[in-house]
Design brief:
four-stranded parallel sheet, 5 helices, single chain, about 10% strand
Amino acid sequence: MRIIGGKFRNKRINFTKNIKTRPLKDSVRENIFNILIHSNIVDIDFESLNVLDLYAGSGSFGIECLSRGASNVIFVEKDLDALFNLKKNINNINLSKNSKIIPKDISRFFNDIILEHNKKFNIIFLDPPYKDKSFINCLKVIKKTIF
């Protein structure tokens, strides 16, 4: 797996190789960023973005945002194997000053962080495990917090 665009293009990303997690494929990330960049509906200025990467895994989405100039990314992940690779990826690319890793379950993150600090994000990305249905509550909290 690699970063597909920006100043860290082609840098390798470590990812967990187990049955609990699955990496976000390069082609999927490329399609997401093509939509963000070329959309007539949203106007994205990557240089001023605050990004929340939920179920971050290896951090490929958030790292891709940082590579393209995002100012800050918060990564939220609870799986220990994924956290190990996420921290390794952040350190290998030297992104610790523009990122924060929160090793928590998503529901605890919202209870402890979002509601207390009222942080605003330009992009909230979540790619939950297929079996995890708690993302529905996550979407409700996001909706309530934003609207």
